[in-house]
Amino acid sequence: IGVRVFLEGPDRNAMFHLLHQERSDIEKEMGFRVDWEENPDKKSNIIVVRRTKANPADRDNWDNQHAWLLKKAEAIKKTIGERLKKMDVGEWQPEDVEE
Questions:
Q1: What is the distance between the alpha carbons of residues 10 and 64, in angstroms, rounded to a whole number?
Q2: Residue 56: Cβ within 10 Å count
Q3: Which residues, including other chains, have CB under 8 Å from residue 18's CB and lie 6 or more apart?
Q4: How many CB atoms lie within 10 A of CB 3?
Q5: 5-41: string of b/e by CB count within 10 Å (b at 16+)?
Q6: Which residues contact 56 (CB under 8 A, 6 or more apart)?
Q7: How far apart are CA 85 and CA 50, in angstroms?
Q8: What is the rounded distance in angstroms from the CA atom of residue 58 to the CA atom of residue 42?
Q9: Is the dihedral of CA 10, 73, 56, 47 positive or negative?
Q10: Bridge partners, residue 46, by sequence
Q11: R_g over Cα of the chain
Q12: What distance in Å separates the CA atoms of residue 36 and residue 28, rounded to the nearest whole number?
């Protein structure tokens, strides 16, 4: 199971890189690490936290799994969501842009 943030649209690379520059602060603030999956040639970049040992088919553990998902989703929304609201994508320039 996991929680994913899909960064899509024309500014997806800028959003991803600006957030990634704050990776240490973001992960410290949330209290857990996330995987940063840059896909520059695809339609979205992804930020994800996974619980790999969870079995979604184990209905006896759903309450625990759902509590974990809620906790992670709330932390991501608060930390990453607030940064996205304040973000100026114009602050990022791709390194390979020729002048």
A1: 37
A2: 10
A3: 83, 87, 89, 91, 92
A4: 20
A5: bebeeeebbbbbbbbeeeeeebeeebeeebebeeeee
A6: 1, 65
A7: 24
A8: 33
A9: positive
A10: 6, 37
A11: 15
A12: 15
Q: How many CA atoms lie within 13 A of 78 on its CB side?
A: 11
- pTM as predicted: 0.87
Number of H helices, E strands in the chain: 4, 3
Per-residue tokens: 9: 């649209």
Query: Angle, to 10 degrees, between the axis of helix 23-30 and the axis of helix 12-21?
Result: 70
At 10-60, the pLDDT tens digits run 999 999 999 999 999 999 999 999 999 998 888 999 999 999 999 999 999
At 8, the amino acid letter reads: E
Place of tokens 């979604």: 56
Q: Is the dihedral of CA 75, 72, 45, 94 positive or negative?
A: positive
